[in-house]
From TrEMBL:
This is Endonuclease/exonuclease/phosphatase domain-containing protein. The keyword Manganese applies. Residues 1-38 are annotated as: Disordered. Keywords: Hydrolase, Magnesium, Manganese, Metal-binding. The record marks H336 as: Interaction with DNA substrate. One of its GO terms (molecular function) is double-stranded DNA 3'-5' DNA exonuclease activity. Residues 48-317 form the Endonuclease/exonuclease/phosphatase domain. Belongs to the DNA repair enzymes AP/ExoA family. It comes from Exophiala dermatitidis (Black yeast-like fungus). The active site is at Y182, D233, H336.
Length: 368
């Protein structure tokens, strides 16, 4: 997200949320800690972090011992080896295979015999008209997946409609789909047709098209009975509470973009009808994910990195925790902090088996 533009008070005075669902989730260690719940073998933890460039994560720490590790490996260790780490704004050129290899090396550098190791998937820019700045080192997402969990991933794919390196879709067992996304930031800069190079509106127009294409992807998956987890930097602060000191309302197009996002993914009957899981668990707790480097910590911040989940995951009691790691330590070199969600994968698998059994026999079972 770029440096904050002029802000003014918003007329949006309450959080955007779908109709209430009876909460089945324990909030864990409580608001303000950003810490994960105690490790449970069958719970899958998914982290997300807009790193604003991977370079600083690859540098080996200065040490006189031979066992020095990279900042990326230290991050994974500090957060107790999550199964997923979804990174946004990695800023790697599609042609730069050396840096891609370095990221994989940094994730596994100095691992012990009993320590987890990771593989990595990339979606990098391939749009020759709209992602050419800095030699193509713009945008880009990468997902680190712990190798002992990798067999649970059926397929990882990049949607054909994303040419800017913004989306990775991971289809898992238990009918779960994790979508790592660096969503378009709306500006008045021109957007060019990726085939012809002709100007085709603004980046605001492109942002709204991105919302529509992402929604179509989600609806198709949900109609197949999949549970979707949208995670990443969505470049939208959904409601007044999500901006400090104020929510961005100028220029007016930001308000329109926000309304479009909220309708498509939360409130519209024909939309995703998703759950903003941080708000669902933590209510009106004020925590943020974007902390620009210029102002003092906490002087200006927004919650623009989000986790939006299918309602089925909440209704079935499969979300075991979520939080934002809002500290200077976890911001590191970036201007965003990480956030995470924990999912009871065993419960999802049990439910999946029960549904299949009911489909074969017509006998209803209680999978909870």
């Amino acid at each position: 997200m770029p440096p904050a533009l002029k802000r003014s008070l918003s007329s949006t005075s309450r959080s955007i949320s779908p109709p209430p669902i009876r909460r089945k989730i324990s909030p864990g260690p409580g608001p303000g800690t950003g810490t994960e719940p105690a490790h449970v073998a069958d719970h899958v933890r998914i982290f997300s972090w807009n790193v604003n460039g991977v370079g600083p994560l690859l540098q080996k720490q200065l040490s006189f011992s031979p066992g020095g590790v990279s900042p990326l490996r230290l991050f994974l260790r500090r957060h107790r080896w999550p199964q997923f780490l979804c990174l946004q704004e990695v800023k790697i050129s599609a042609k730069d295979t050396a840096t891609q290899r370095q990221l994989l090396h940094a994730a596994n550098q100095g691992h012990g015999l009993d320590d987890p190791t990771y593989n990595v998937h990339f979606s990098l820019p391939r749009d020759k008209y709209n992602a050419t700045g800095f030699g193509g080192k713009v945008h880009g997402v990468a997902t680190l997946i712990r190798e002992d969990f990798a067999p649970q991933v059926r397929v990882t794919r990049r949607p054909d409609w994303d040419l800017e390196g913004r989306v990775l879709i991971h289809e898992l067992e238990a009918d779960v789909v994790v979508i790592n996304g660096y969503w378009v930031n709306g500006t008045s800069n021109p957007y060019r047709d990726p085939q012809t190079g002709q100007v085709a509106g603004t980046r605001h127009d492109h942002k709204l098209r991105f919302h529509q294409r992402m929604l179509e992807e989600v609806i198709r998956l949900q109609e197949q009975g999949r549970h979707v987890i949208l995670i990443g930097d969505m470049n939208i602060a959904p409601a007044r509470i999500d901006g400090y000191p104020n929510l961005r309302t100028s220029p007016l197009q930001h308000v329109k973009n926000r309304a479009d996002f909220n309708a498509k993914f939360f409130t519209d009957e024909n939309g995703m009808r998703g759950i903003d899981i941080f708000r669902h668990i933590h209510g009106d707790t004020r925590k943020y994910t974007y902390y620009p480097r210029g102002p003092r910590w906490g002087e200006s911040c927004d919650r623009v990195d989000l986790i939006v989940v299918s309602r089925s995951l909440v209704e079935d009691g499969c979300i075991t925790g979520t939080d934002i790691c809002d500290s200077p330590l976890d911001r590191g070199h970036s201007d965003h902090v990480p956030l995470w969600i924990s999912v009871d994968f065993a419960k999802l698998q049990s439910r999946q088996r029960a549904v299949k059994f009911e489909g074969r026999t017509g006998v209803r079972t209680d999978s909870h």
